[in-house]
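ESCALATION

Customer reports they have been waiting on this structure for their group meeting. Please prioritize. Original submission:
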Amino acid sequence: MSLSLDLVVRARRTAVGGTLRPCSVGVSAGRIAAVEPFDAALDAADVADLAPDEVLLPGLVETTCTSTSLAAPNGRASRP
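Update from on-call: job pushed to the front of the queue and completed.
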């Protein structure tokens, strides 16, 4: 069975199962569809190779937001 992936992110340091290891993470429709060894043959529309000093944290969701990130120069709230 072949996966239809939109994105593959390859990282030499991926946090999986409490350890850092080289992995390729496949994403389909905005969801993680595969976590495979770094050199796995995953095909996708886009491929991102992280730098050696970057760490991939699959599944981590950034939930912080500050009001200044939505403020317009006039101080009024705006929508992105």
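Sent to customer with the following note: Residues 31 and 60 are 12 Å apart (CA to CA).
Escalation resolved.
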